[in-house]
Amino acid sequence: MTETVDVVLIGGGIMSATLGTLLHELQPDWKIVAFERLSDVAQESSNPWNNAGTGHAALCELNYMPQQKGAPLDPAKAVSINEQFQQSRQFWSSLVDRGVLDAPSTFINATPHMTFVRGEKDVAYLKDRYEVLKKQPLFDGIEYSEDSRVINKWAPLLMQQRRKGEPFAATRVPAGTDVDFGALTHQLFDHLTDSGVALRTNHEVKSLKKQKDGTWLINYRTTIGRTPNQIKARFVFVGAGGWALKLLQRSGIPEIKGYGVFPIGGQFLKTSDPKIVAQHKAKVYSQASVGAPPMSVPHLDTRVVDGEASLMFGPFATFSPKFLKNGSMLDIVSQVRTHNLWPMLRVAFANPDLITYLVGELLKNHAKKVDSLRTFMPTAKDEDWTLIDAGQRAQVMKKDAKKGGILQFGTEVVSAADGSIAGLLGASPGASTAVPIMLDLLKKCFPAEYPGWESELRELIPTFGEQLNKDAALAAKSTSATAATLGINE
């Protein structure tokens, strides 16, 4: 007989781990099974070396507050991202208190978030941004300086041997964080498996078919031995990174029509030289190059993985037709359908700057990439830095009534009308905002159960349903409480 369960999670990343944990806390009697085609979880985008580990709260990322010609700067998007990250912080804090997660330092560390810009235009913009954000409660503590002596104290590597007379400025928020989403994912899945959730690694889902009784029949096979099998589920979540599109297409739900994805790979320069690492404790972001996607904003970051601090700089874009690092060379072709071909062509025609940017990135050798680093760190030496391959990001392309097709950055949940299946497409700031993304999914896909879950959600997320930025006292209380629990006080 075919096994029947309540929930199937496809993909062993931070999204499936977060949703599985929420559902287990809310409905411990439900039977949950998770599938991962690789030998372990957190091997794709959630792996700590496949992402920058930035706890995205819009403290330093300029793309969340773009300058629109002739219009005043609008903090709404930045505030929204920060609100979402605060929900993630509260959830992780509750799990630490409950013993679900290990010592906070194993997955999160205090790391100031900075923005550094050069040139009169960008300096003026950064100052305007600072003046707007310092009035927002969630950005309390943001600092601004054009003084080389002050910036040198914040991040010495930015100032050493910098050319005199060049306009520059920086902002700094001491309350930023570095997050090891790989460690976090492993700890969440460890707790789930200890609690009876089945995690089946080396198992690849091949197809999904809706049954007359409303369940989903999922055909899968082991990657070792290729043994086929099947399972039925009342609800399916597809958190398979770039392959989410392929599986949602195979499910046949009409809601996926018009969607495609464009894969963009990445590389980082990395050093673990203690003398260099000791001089920089911050995540420093700047402006993106012309035509570069927001995920390619250059930044020089402190990373803490397995207790060891390193520095990373990048990302440098690469191209592969694969939707995952461990994907197929046919991914970019196999996604094409009659309903998404035109939107994808329109995206190609409308983004020549992106194509030019990608070609330029592909032509850079190691020396050229270190030259890019020297705009941040003038003293950088080629021999101190090595290149590492980051994860594949599958950027969303979809239909647009006016333009025919658009390239969308960020994440998007696509779900069936009856809420029986949902999947996540897109990239950053997904991991940092996994909790609010999954909360929205719960509300949409479980309308009957959701009202009964709200009291427990308030236990897990004390300010659930409230907006911190509208209440300065509540914002200060919440951030102070989570900082204490997570050990990320300034």
From TrEMBL:
It comes from Microbacterium phyllosphaerae. Belongs to the MQO family. It catalyses: (S)-malate + a quinone = a quinol + oxaloacetate. The keyword Oxidoreductase applies. The gene is mqo. It is an enzyme of class 1 (oxidoreductase). The keyword Oxidoreductase applies. This is Probable malate:quinone oxidoreductase. InterPro entries: FAD/NAD-bd_sf, MQO.
